Fold this sequence. Notes:
- The structure holds two protein chains of two kinds.
- Chain A is globular and about 45 Å long.
- Chain A has one domain: 3-Layer(aba) Sandwich (Hypothetical Protein Ychn, Chain: A).
- By secondary structure, chain A is an alpha/beta fold.
- Chain A is built from three helices and seven strands, in the order E-H-E-E-H-E-E-E-H-E.
- By secondary structure, chain B is of the alpha/beta class.
- Chain B has a single domain (2-131), classed as Hypothetical Protein Ychn, Chain: A.
- Chain B is built from five helices and five strands; from the N terminus they run βαβαβααβαβ.
- Chain B has a five-stranded parallel β-sheet, sandwiched between helices.
- In chain B, strand 1 (2-7), helix 1 (16-29) and strand 2 (33-39) form a beta-alpha-beta unit.
- In chain B, helix 1 runs parallel beside helix 2.
- Chains A and B meet through helix 1 and strand 7 of A and helix 5 of B.
Amino acid sequence: MAIKKFMYLNRKASYGTAYAIESLEVVLIAAAFDQDVSLAFIDDGVYQIVEGQNTDGIGMKNFSKTFHALGDYDINKLYVSAESLEERGLTADDLMPLVYEDEDDDWEEKPSVKIVSNAELTKIMSEQDVCLSF
Amino acid sequence: MKFSIQINEGPYQHQASDSAYQFAKAAIAAGHEIFRVFFYHDGVNNATRFTMPPQDDRNVVNQWAELDIKNADGEPELVVCIAAALRRGMLDESEAKKNGIEGNNIHPAFRISGLGQLIEAGIQSDRLVVFGD
Lengths: 134, 133
C-alpha cells in the first residue's frame, strides 16, 4: 500500500489539557507504521517545544524531552507557525534545538524544526493525505 | 467512499460526539462506508454503558451502539483508545480482570484497542474526519 502523508496539528499548550501529551503518544505509535509523518505547531501549540520547561511546581510529568527522541524515529519535519510565535513574543531561540541525523548525508545532524509562515503551512497542509488535529 | 472518524471529546459537555454521530448516520444513509470510529482523549467517555440521561434527552452512547458499526468478522468498529481509557477509569471486562478491579463500564458495542488502530484507519480510509475542540 502506498505511503500516506500524515500531519499532526498541535494547537494547545503542554499541560493545561491532555491534548499535547496524547498527541505525542499518537505520533510515537505512528512512527511504527512507516508513513510520511510531519508535525505542525500552531496557536498555543508552539509552547509545546519551548526550551526549559519545568513541571516541578504542578506535579505533572515533563514530557518535553520526548520531542528529542522524534529524530530517532525518522520524524524530522516539525513546522512551526511564524505568526503564532510572534503573537506570543517568542523567537526561534526560545525553542528546543531538535535535530535528526540525515542518513542520506553521512548521518549529519540537522535541525528538525522549520519556522514557516501560515501561508506556507497552509500549502503544506493541503498536500497531506491525513491531518490529525489536537 | 470509505470514512473513518476520530472523536476527541466526551458526551454532553461537547457537541463533537453528536456531530460525529449525525455525520456517520448521514454518510451511511448516503451509501458510504464507516470503516472505524476511534474514540480518543475525553472521547473515550462516549463508551460508558452507565450513561443515564433524562428521558427527554438523547442517549449519546446508545445512539452509537445502535449504528452497529462492525467489520466483516463481526467485531465492533467503535474503538476506544486503551491508554486514554484506562487513565480515565474506563475498563472493559478483560482490563478490569487484568488490573484486579471489580466491575467494568465499556458498552459491548464498543471495543478497547491501541492507537495503532487510529493510524490504520487513516491509512485504510479515503477520509479520516476529526471531531473535537
